[in-house]
Amino acid sequence: MTKSVLQVERAKYQPKMPAVLKQQVIAVDGEKTESVADRNEIKALFPNTYGLPVVSFQSTAETRSAPAVNVGVILSGGQAPGGHNVIAGLFDGIKKANKESRLFGFLLGPGGLLKGNAVELTSEIIDEYRNTGGFDIIGSDRTKLIQNAGHFERALKVLNALKVDGTEYKINALVIIGGDDSNTNACVLAEYFKSIGSDIQVIGCPKTIDGDLKNEQIETSFGFDTACKVYSEVIGNIQRDCNSAKKYWHFIKLMGRSASHIALECALQTHPNFCIVSEEIEEKNYTLDGIVEQIVELVITRNLAGKHFGTALIPEGLIEFIPEIKKLIKELNQILSTMNIDPNKIKKSELIDEISKRLSTESAELYSKRLPESVARQLALDRDSHGNVQVSLIETEKLLADKVSSLLKTKKDEELDALKEPGDEKEIKRIKSKYSFSPQTHFFGYEGRCAAPSNYDADYCYSLGYTAASLIGAQKTGYMSSVRNTTKSADKWLAGGIPITMMMNIEEKPITDSNGKLSLEKVPVIQKALVKLNGAPFREYAALREYWALNDDYVYPGPIQFYGPAELTDQPTMTLHLEQKKK
Ligand code: FBP
Predict the structure, then answer these.
(1) Spatial distance between the Cα atoms of 390 and 445, rounded to a whole number of angstroms
(2) Residue ranges per structural domain of the chain
(3) Phi/psi class of residue 485: alpha, beta or left (left: φ > 0; alpha: ψ in -120 to 50)?
(4) Residue owning the nearest CA to atom 12 of ligand 1
(5) DSSP string covering 99-144
(6) Would residue 210 show up in a list of annotated catalytic residues for this protein?
(7) Ligand 1 centre from 445 Cα, in Å?
(8) Alpha helices in 305-395 (DSSP H)
(9) Which residues, in sequence order, are bridge partners of residue 163?
(10) What is the pLDDT of residues 145-196, one digit of tens each?
(11) Residues 282-298, buried b or exposed e (16+ Cβ, 10 A)?
(12) Selected catalytic residue, list 181, 210, 225, 552
């Protein structure tokens, strides 16, 4: 494989990790835990893994020999920078405890486990991928591991007798690197193994660029840092272009699924003229037209100040948070789950007609008149395997740019029509300038998901993997690997494990079956962390946004730096800094 000079140099980087993990450790159990909500239901669903104590690792003088273990690892869901370093940390951790231990990677995500498709990850393979972006070491997918009892049995059978290169191995522990859904799956699997008396351990690791897998115990999900830095670099470049030519409004949609953490972090890093935070839209009950009016007002104010340009950041999940659209999606979920129609056997246009007839009057008006047909179609039909609306497919940046453009045109035409002297060239010029608007649209998502991890992500991920190895050594199961205190220097980071049941609650979720049929089910899931409007990152943004709207205080963060002083190379996100400052 041909490598760039940077790749060759970067491969030599030795990730920093908590000082405690460099020594012999013991797992110290803390207090017993409770789930964040719905305690009785979660306890009943997880009788064997509920209430476990939080675990922290501490150094010990005692030297113990660890038995050799066979560990399986899965990368699950969307890519996030640093996944390879989690695997490298896990590999180094289990080998340090016993060099006879082996690591097996299931190919192409959870589906690889169900198919028994795995490779042994040797030091030669691991060394090729240290400090690199992507998940290509073993690949990933979005297969759900816990769809039915058959999946559990299949997983058990594969792990008890995994065949790789003609040899059969009993896998002692499985590490699932994934987001909230995948870590929920990890816990369900851990519970199942315990309930049948199997000693196979299951450990999760918090991954997702979206930044929505965090709570009191998990400071951040890996990949968020790098992805935000990559997007902020490009937003900065666009802002410089914008400030140079002074002729375009850039509408930039940012990945991040439901939560607006990425848009908010990028706003804090780059100071755009406008940034939507979906959670605020919901809280303030804004309509789609209300959002459009706000942007139109800003465009006009800036035009009047001679600034015919600007930048607006739009979170990917916006559409689901606009209360009228949220209501529509809820009605659609209900209708699709009771319609008793196989969506694969009916023409799309007929299905949309059928749906419209069953919607409430307001939703039907929004669905059939105010939303472009393409968006209406996506809301009803294009769901992912978890039954969620595929927000990354909805072109909100274009929808908003089009709506802003047409409202400005309407306002301009009204003002031109009301001219007392229709031929007044000076007035016509003034009105045209007041309503001028030239948009450019962008969507940044996939560009940042496989970037080479920043030092923060490289270190954090390696430490998460190493901690997962220590949790395996401590015979833990149903835990998520946890590394905390990460705004401090790495030697002061804390390593431990958090019982996954502690993060769970019960939610009603749309589930699609193998025929694409939707149903609503109450299921245990890890609670998603949305942007808190009373949290420090949002409050910081809210205090500054008026200034940024009119004064072009653009920041150009530039590319991620790997070499140089720690202030340049090792800074975590502003979100994390602000969140930790209050503690
Ligand atoms: P995860 O939640 O699995 O980490 O995925 C994150 C994400 O990148 C979202 O931001 C985005 O909405 C989605 O994946 C896109 O999915 P896909 O990779 O299937 O196109």
Answers:
(1) 13
(2) 18-223+453-504, 229-449+534-560+572-577
(3) left
(4) 257
(5) TT-EEEEETTTHHHHHHT-EEE--HHHHHHHTT--SSTTT--B---
(6) yes
(7) 9
(8) 318-321, 323-338, 348-358, 361-365, 373-381
(9) 168
(10) 766 778 899 999 999 999 999 999 999 999 999 999 999 999 999 999 999 9
(11) beeebebeebbeebbeb
(12) 210
Identical fold at 18-223+453-504 and 229-449+534-560+572-577?
yes
Structure tokens at 88: 């490298």
The tokens describing 1, both together, are 């494989």
CB 391 within 8 A of CB 258: yes
Q: What is the pTM of this model?
A: 0.94
Instruction: Mention every residue, 6+ apart, whose C-beta is less than 8 A from residue 425.
Output: none
Ligand 1 atom with the shortest distance to the CA of 317: 12
The first and second tokens of residue 174, run together, are 């499985």
Which ligand 1 atom is at minimum distance from the Cα of 76? 3
- Look at the domain 18-223+453-504 and name its fold: Rossmann fold (3.40.50)
Entry field: residues in the chain: 583
pLDDT digits (tens, 9 = 90+) for 211-227: 999 998 899 999 999 99
Which residue type is seen at 552? D
Report the phi/psi class of residue 82: left, alpha or beta, with left for phi > 0 and alpha for psi in -120 to 50. Answer: left
Question: What CATH architecture is 229-449+534-560+572-577?
Answer: 3-Layer(aba) Sandwich (3.40)
Instruction: Tell me the CA–centroid distance for residue 397 and ligand 1, in Å.
Output: 18
CA separation for the pair 299, 308 (Å, rounded): 8
What H or E segment, with its residue span, contains residue 230? helix 224-245
CA–CA separation, 112 and 104 (whole Å): 11
